[in-house]
Amino acid sequence: MPALNQPHFQDPDKAREYLERIQWPHGPVCPHCGSVSEAHYKLAGEAHRAGLWKCKDCREQFTVTVGTVFERSKIALNVWLQAVYLLCSSKKGMSAHQLHRTLGVTYKTAWFMAHRIREAFRDATPGIMGGNGGPVEVDETYVGKAKGARARRFRDGPKVQGTGGVHLRKVVSLVDRQGATRSFHIANIDAKNLKPILLKHIARGATVYTDNAGHYKHMGFDQYFAAHETTNHSAGEYARPGGIHSNTVEAYFGLLKRGLYGTYHHVSEAHLQRYLEEFDFRYTNRVAQGVNDTERAIRALAQIRGKRLTYRSTHGQQAQ
Q1: Contact yes or no for 135/243 (Cβ under 8 A)
Q2: Could you tell me the pTM of the whole model?
Q3: Which of 7, 58, 140, 249 is the most buried (most CB within 10 A)?
Q4: How large a percentage of the chain has pLDDT more than 90?
């Protein structure tokens, strides 16, 4: 049976029951006081909307969407679940225009829905990478045009002024070969910006794999990590014996750029980090890690709590 034919994608009540099973595996949880109790009870009758509960402790009313990215949305919950599944199963993302056409909502609504879902993709409690001495690959790339970069006209057409990527947005990505992927939009690619990120997210016993870029040479890797291995890309060396390479993170960059340029076309600098988190989430939970489309969507739905966005705060930043 095709995934979108399942009952929770077609019926709002089935969608609510499906979300309750994911959010409350051990019984209803009051979002107001955090109480978990089998004594919480449903409010029934024509005066109450479907799915409304009352806490036995603080006596507040709540539903499964309170305190989540779905809170106070006028979009039917089954349509929300469709949107989550589509973004989770589309390897290179899905534009707001495509969501608007597929779901039958306005473009403005689709744009905001997509950003809410990207917020759900964000890992609020990221663990350390490279635990048990595992390998972590680190590399940087450039995307789009940085704010303030000026275009100059040359004989063969307009080009952005700058060399060596100074006119582009900088991204550093860390890929733990055991699973997790984490990307960051940074101001400059240098030891000053990179070192704090590596020290915060990579375990001290990990082995770090990079290319031989100059900014890595004086970062004192040996003081912080078990080992630092490099490959010389400028000499055509992309792998060395013993699994020494950064090809996994390079593959991630290929997917990221195909999505940003081919699907989204333009991503504002204000929202770039949220798009990076979208691609991080899918790559962390990819098929190669044993996660299929349905499981990926369930993992996203398990992360929706405590991440409510308002349209005003989101649209206050430059829109895509």
Answers
A1: yes
A2: 0.88
A3: 249
A4: 73
